[in-house]
Amino acid sequence: MPDYKVLMQKALSEIKELRSQLQQEKNKDRSPIAIIGMGCRFPGGANTPEAFWELLVNGVDAISEVKRDRWNIEDYYDDNLATPGKMHTRYGGFVEGLKEFDADFFGRSPREAESLDPQQRLLLEVTWEA
Fold this sequence. Notes:
mainly alpha; elongated; 5 helices
């Protein structure tokens, strides 16, 4: 017959050890951090943290209608929700300056830069700014 007192003491000991480990992990998350730089690109021309803050403080709606330099909205839009393969809105949040990537600065050939995903180009630029 098992000795329940020994089993309970062993279980209690394991619980205490696990609680100790959990507390150590929680304390790791409380380590102080330092923000030493920031960069951003948001719709509405908010390309600095200060400009983004102003957008927020002033309640600016940075959503705009799709511009022709992005794509021809008439090719993709249909207000009928049942139409397959079509967009059902003419609006979006668009980041400006996607074509202004300095390939040479980032050590990329013009051909490579053109094939990069625009999000990767933005990541390179904003990371450098930060």
